[in-house]
Amino acid sequence: MIFKLVGDGRPYPEHGLSNRDWAQIPPRQVRLDSLITTKAVLDLHSLLAKDSTFYGDLFPHVVQWQGEFYLEDGLHRALRAALHQRSVLHARVLELTDPG
């Protein structure tokens, strides 16, 4: 199995981070098998495009919420890492705390 779970949607509260805010979070290693996706569908054109990160962040965005790691952005990069038989990838991880 590549991911811990294939999800469809974001179960965590809205964080309001912009791309500039995400860029301030230093990347760290995350195991692919610990990630829960927030998208159940992928676009093969994006997966196979050589320049798919040209206009975006080089690192996937992961939200840590209630002990789980949710892959918010970077599904195609994570799948490419798995296709290259890597078990980890570098991602920016936002740790959200439960407001309650």
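The record above closes out task 2.4. Task 2.5 opens with a second protein, given below.
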Amino acid sequence: MAASGDTLSVKAPGIILGIGLGGFCDGIFLHQVFQWHHMFSSKITVDTVDGLKMNTLGDGVFHTVTWLSVLFGLWLLYSRVTQGRRKVWSSPVLWAWMLNGWGWFNLIEGLVDHQLLGIHHVLSGPNQFLWDMGFLASGVIFIGLGWMIARKSTPIDLSYA
């Protein structure tokens, strides 16, 4: 809890929220809406009922982890804020760290699932390496932009909340 006159650090909750929300966007758009890949689609075919079941289960576990990340980020943020909620949610610092967290999600998920384990790719096919590299590049860009915005933004001052 921030005492009067303290500034509030939203770095950890912002990064955790960004990781969860980045995962949601990946799962909703790339897995479900565009159907470019599923969790294990490079290892287990989606062309059979059993394969689709296993990939759907993997997608469900993935979404559960991203959902828990969002809940944890919200709890962490809420536990630090007793006053001044409007200042927190309207602060560019929080949104910057969320963008940074989304970048970390893209970078880590892209390196682990796409490159190291090869369990799926952003879009399988002749240009899958370029799609995977674009996903990794978006992670690096989000991390950098989030960090720069947070660094240049004024910390959240709750002294007049």
